[in-house]
Q: What sequence folds into this?
């Protein structure tokens, strides 16, 4: 049996909610998942804090950040919240058989290094059960690209699911999977042990990936050319020109 002794006493869970209606079924699904995870963790002696990132109020700031190539202050604050999170619950509505454009736009702004090995619960809501596979077909590859660790159980809720006990069981299963990752600290251990083996983005906003000019190797052929030198160092002494 694996050792499930809590690796840390306090954890932070970030909830990304792309629901824009009021009330929002997407927010409800994310909140139920977060609360179930908190209950499981606290029963094991681990304190959990939930911080929410509601994308609706950030829609204009997200669009401006994409167009300008620079993060708006409110978007930067959301990224800093993600950077400090030990786990993420990502929830989006489904429109036109796909994830929300608002959710995808926000994801496009996430630094590739920001969520490496972070445990994630993937969730979506939609108007029909026919779109249930959107979570695994679109969200799972997206968070795989970001090098996160999505838990095995994904969540999807159509209108008819809210009265079903099965939805509650699936939420509990996903919450249990996330709590195990958090209690063991597996994601953090994976990130710590493998961090230097990843290719990182220069100038990114992930704390461990931040680099200065001191980290740049100016001796490479490309950097010598960029700084006005020749591709290869000149040999010492006279050359035999013919």
A:
């Amino acid at each position: 049996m694996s050792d499930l002794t809590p690796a840390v006493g306090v954890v932070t869970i970030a909830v990304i909610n792309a629901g824009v209606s009021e009330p929002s079924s997407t927010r409800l699904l994310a909140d139920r998942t977060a609360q179930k995870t908190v209950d499981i963790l606290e029963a094991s002696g681990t304190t959990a804090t939930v911080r929410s990132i509601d994308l609706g109020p950030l829609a204009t700031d997200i669009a401006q950040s994409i167009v300008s190539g620079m993060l708006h202050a409110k978007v930067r604050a959301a990224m800093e919240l993600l950077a400090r999170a030990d786990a993420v619950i990502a929830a989006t509505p489904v429109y036109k058989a796909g994830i929300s454009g608002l959710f995808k736009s926000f994801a496009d702004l996430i630094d590739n290094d920001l969520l490496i090995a972070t445990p994630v619960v993937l969730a979506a809501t939609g108007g029909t059960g026919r779109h249930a596979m959107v979570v695994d077909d679109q969200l799972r590859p997206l968070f795989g690209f970001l090098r996160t660790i999505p838990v095995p159980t994904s969540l999807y809720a159509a209108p008819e699911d809210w009265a079903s006990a099965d939805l509650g069981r699936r939420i509990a299963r996903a919450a249990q999977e996330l709590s195990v990752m958090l209690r063991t600290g597996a994601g953090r251990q994976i990130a710590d042990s493998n961090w230097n083996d990843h290719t990182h983005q220069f100038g990114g906003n992930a704390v461990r990936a931040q680099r200065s000019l001191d980290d740049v190797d100016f001796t490479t052929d490309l950097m010598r050319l960029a700084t006005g030198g020749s591709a290869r160092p000149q040999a010492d002494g006279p050359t035999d020109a013919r």
